[in-house]
Amino acid sequence: MSGGWLLLPIGLPVLGGLYVLFRKPGTDTRRLVICEIFTLAAAAMTFAMILFGDRGIVQVFSLMKGFAICFRVDGPAMLFAGMVSAMWPFVLLYAKAYMEGEHQRDKFFAFFTMTYGVTLGVAFAANLLTMYVFFEMLTLVTIPLVTHYEDHDSMYAGRKYAAYCIGGASLGFIAVVFCSLGGSEAFVYGGSLDTVFPAEILRLIFVVGFFGFGAKAAIFPLHGWLPTAGVAPTPVTALLHAVAVVNTGVYAVVRLTWYVYGPELLAGSRAQLVCLLAAVFTLVFAAVMAVRERHVKRRLAYSTVSNLSYMLYGVLLLTPAGLYAGLLHMLFHGIIKMSLFLCAGAFMHVTGKAYIYEINGAGLRMPVTFSFYTLGALSLTGIPLFCGFVSKWSLLTAGAEAGTPAALAGVAALIAAAFLCAVYTISISVRAFFPETGKSSPEGGVHEAPWQMLLPIGVFAALNILFGLFPGLVTGFIQEISMGVF
Amino acid sequence: MLVDLIVFLPFVMAAGAYPLGRKHEKIRDLLVPAFAGIELLLCCLLFGGQGSGTEITGVLSMGLSFTVDGFRTVYALITAFMWFMTSVFSREYFAHEREGLARYYVFWLMTLGATEGVMLSADLMTTFVFFEILSFTSFTWVLHEQTRAAIRAGYTYLFIAVIGGLLLLMGLLLLYSAAGTLTFSELPAAMERILTNPPAGGASAAALTNASSAGAFAAPLPNAASPGRLLAAGILILLGFGAKAGMFPLHVWLPKAHPVAPSPGSAILSGVLTKVGIFGILMTSAEAFPAHPMLGAVIYVLGLVTMFLGALLALFSVNLKRTLACSSMSQVGFILTGLGSFVLQGAVAAAHEGASALSGAGEAVREALAGGAAALSGAGASGTLSALTGEIGEGRVLASSGLMLHMVNHSLLKLALFMIAGVVVMNLHKLDLNAIRGWGRKKPLLKLAFALGGLGISGVPLFNGYISKTMLHEGIVMLIEEAETAGVGAFAVHVLAASEWIFLISGGLTFAYMMKLFFCVFVEKNADPKVQAAYDGASAADAASKDCVFASGSQRPPKTSETRAAADGNAACRRRPYMNAASAFAILGSAIFMLILGQPAVMTRLAAFMTGNPEILEFHAFTPGNLKGGFISLGIGAAVYLLIVRLWLMRKGVYLDRWPKGLDLEERVYRPLLTKALPGIFGAIVRIPAENRVSSLLCRGVLAAGKALARFFGENRLLRPVCRGLVFLGTFFGRCLSTGTDAFFALLRKTVLRERRVQTAEDYQPGKARTAVRVTEEALRPLAFNFSFALLMTCLGIIVFLVVLLLTIL
What we know:
The structure holds two protein chains of two kinds.
Chain A lengths: L6 H17 L4 H25 L5 E7 L2 E5 L3 H24 L6 H20 L3 H19 L5 H30 L17 H16 L10 H4 L5 H28 L1 H4 L3 H23 L3 H21 L3 H32 L10 H4 L1 H15 L5 H16 L2 H29 L17 H19 L2 H11 L4
Antiparallel strand pairs in A: 1-2
Chain B lengths: L1 H22 L1 H21 L7 E4 L7 E4 L2 H24 L7 H19 L4 H19 L5 H32 L7 H10 L4 H7 L19 H19 L7 H8 L2 H25 L5 H24 L3 H34 L8 H17 L15 H35 L4 H4 L7 H15 L5 H23 L3 H34 L5 H16 L16 H5 L5 H5 L5 H16 L3 H12 L12 H22 L4 E2 L2 E2 L9 H27 L2 H20 L5 H35 L14 H17 L2 H23 L1
Antiparallel strand pairs in B: 1-2, 3-4
Helix pairs in contact in B: 1-2, 1-4, 2-3, 3-4, 3-11, 3-15, 3-23, 4-5, 4-11, 5-6, 5-11, 6-9, 6-10, 7-14, 9-11, 9-12, 10-11, 10-13, 11-13, 11-15, 12-13, 12-19, 13-14, 13-15, 13-18, 13-19, 15-17, 15-18, 15-23, 15-24, 17-19, 17-23, 18-19, 18-25, 19-25, 26-28, 27-28, 28-29
């Protein structure tokens, strides 16, 4: 227990959430301050761990041999935890403005803060079992957030969310069991399985585990929950359903693929092919569905489904270049999708409208919000100058380099999806700024969003351009992760 | 430093112009032309900086790099010049428009910077970056008017731009993975290395500079430099840039966007932005594929189609700006044809050198390619178009000079012509030929400018278009001769000969549609005498105050009796001159180039400067052979005008739109593809199995098997109950299977298609499958969306866990 400090960032937000839940601070500001204190403390601890903490395994307790709860700070953990920690405080600020006047704010902020700790738990998990435990907890702790409005749609979305994620995780559990028995006591870059079981069976289990953990990353047959969950309040859809929770799915697949199985066991196998094709199919399919969707947040949710499959595609190429591209896209997509969702949320909050055709002319009333939106949209499409281009280019080069038929099909699919992405994101900007004469819908009282909303959006938009112009700030780090340096 | 300034200053100015533009409109209106003027002066300084280049590393992962050579200098200058002239013109054009103009000017200046960025780029990545920027910034012009038509055209433009950008990206990716570089000056050497070495895994591995590919688990490297992938890269890049150039089949945005865009915007879209596309195609094919037979053939054929189709569309059009837009497409076709003939000549020469036929086996083609690349890259000077200098055949010199000069010509021509169209729009707010007919009858200045443009574009001797078209034509003639001597086969020669005629006919069509426009607007009288009187009255008023064209726009012309007689005419025409001094300066200043560039001495010097090859100085424009080609074209044009336009496209003095409505690539193919076919395909994947009733077939199969078994063993008393059981089990499992499959498809249909409508009986064939689907759907609904489902899955997991535990313990 020498490195017990690692438990602090995981525990602090949970404690903070429990405090808010049971002590019920009276005013909005007090609640926000309490949540921010715990969140910022945890974020500071996280960054301290990333920068200065030691890299050893911290074992908390052991169920039996091979089944222990332990944590560790390694490459992907640094990336994922750092990314989440940088976003959470801003979104809390945004949530304060967004949730004004809603009911049960204590409950909302309590669970929202707790989710942060649980997400860090997933990030710092050092073996599959620990990750699985936090993975399940993440589902449970976010259900109250999805069902926050407690109307029929929300309850339905909550049930569906739970069914998909818990069901998926139970598939993942099968993989956890096999891998733990197979000798994977801790994550090791390049694979940590002994060959207790025949390779063919292990590969079959991989497919099961991939779809299980992939349910959170909304892989094709199990993607249905994400668009439905768009009924949740925007801070939830933005941070959880575009970044934290769904990336947990990708993160779990990264762990399973690269840190348990390893490319040697999987490369060229049918298991890789099946999973790769599922990802390729999802990324085009979801983009098509996004084009058809008329509800702003559901459209963005489908876009998330599509982009998560970009990452899975990169990871499943089983080359370091592919892993690099996948992780890079995880970071950049997080930044972009946050700004898109927060802008959409600002629009919905200010106007009370939610459909694409209601956006006509909104950009003239809310120029700052929709300018930020447009930057995000261009980035997501993959236009140079913005960070989305960097990761998309890496994905494409990785795919072309891998050169297998499935990988090349993926390259073509990426290009097609990028076009569809332009259709479904940029058309919103066009509507907002260039309404048909005399058809501008938001009238009178519509004004710019409050600063608590614009500040987080602005930060993400700035990051978007910063990383677009100077990708070197992070690419070196992620490249090292993908080569297994950390 | 200078180059950086030219590229990035407009962006800075755009940032400054916006806050200013919203508050102080007068200052902004003066400042925008001033900015363009500064840019023009800076570009003039480029002549002193030949061969210099800059590189900005650290941004955009691959860095940006710029270089200066003859061609780039001239094009940077033309870009700035066009921006300056149109800015001067914009002041009057937008005089009555206030809202949205600040936005317009911001994107206007940003596009200027991006265009200069493309024109001065030294590597394809830089080209791509600025190309994407200008796609999006220029897009805002197209839907500036914000009418329904403008927004629709805007979407078309945007989507074509995005598709083009992505195709380009894909092409760059393939080229980069094969050659390992995207810098223009390094490409010839890289391509030569690929083509001379057999493209084994090792060669391409060396080319891949991406450090991450050297990882421990790198998959076996594929054949990144195989001829197929190289060709694919070339074609993708061609299509990507071609989308912006207006090349068939991605030309659909041109005829839609121009009529709705503001006229200064149309002038730039047509004059410069199409050239941005050409620039990319030219650079890529000249540096990376200077002698690629297949790519050359593709460029050549697409060029011919674009050229002819554009001219044909222009001839049929009854809208002034649409005609000019289609004409742009056609002229782009001329340029591409020239480029195609340039590449093909390289291929033919190389094939000849390698003593192997063009249509030979793959080995021969490879040799030819290698020979061509080696011959061409050897003589290259750094930073210039290496393939265009060096020791190359006369035909290639002609083709390269011709295509570059035609680019210059077309830019300036369309600048003048679109601004004239702009004058029409700002006076009449109409573009239909029947409505504006006769408007220009008594406006000598405008008439002169338009006539100069028309003569120039049609290739009449002594005007600029003649020289460039003649060079292009001679290039094709040379290509045919070379192909004959190289012995590429009779069929290929016949095809090439036919292409020469297509070239001449397209030239003729150009003459015909320009005559149609000129006679319609400036010579004929309007069908409605009252309208004509109003048009003439306005002009007469201008004539009365003779130099009021040159006076300021606010000065009122004296009201003569004639103008009062035309009281029910167009009020706008009556009160003020049809254009002010600044606009007249812009139009005449552009049109005068048709005469200046009509001089062979000027043109050959310009060509020598642009290509960096002095051989072209020996070109004589007015030899009998050259004149013959020109006059054949003009003769065809006159005949087409008299026979087709006057007799078939006009009825009782009214211009008819006889283009079949069904022949619209966008409406018939592209839009349905996007809105119907793509979602439809995904729907079909899910729908087909269900409707073929796979499940019921399965069910029947199992039943039949069981019954067959029962019949076979029916005699045996002992086995009889077993068989009965089998039949029962078969039926049971069959039912289950059928229900399960149907339910699976039903679920898929729900999740994938998300069909909201109530499914009616017609959706399914009558029978058991329908009820089965409904029953199972209902049965599954609570299951799928409930905790019990989750619990079920968890239990399954635990069972497997236990089984495995048992197995390992035992």
